[in-house]
Amino acid sequence: MAKKPQIPKPEPRKSISREEWEALGVSLFGKNPRQWKFKCPACGYVASIEDYLRVGAPEGAFAFSCVGRWMKEARDAFTGKGEGPCNYSGGGLFSINPVQIQGRARPIFDFARDDAKQETEKKPIP
Ligand SMILES: [Zn+2]
Question: Where do the structural domains in the chain lie, given as residue ranges?
Answer without folding.
Answer: 14-117
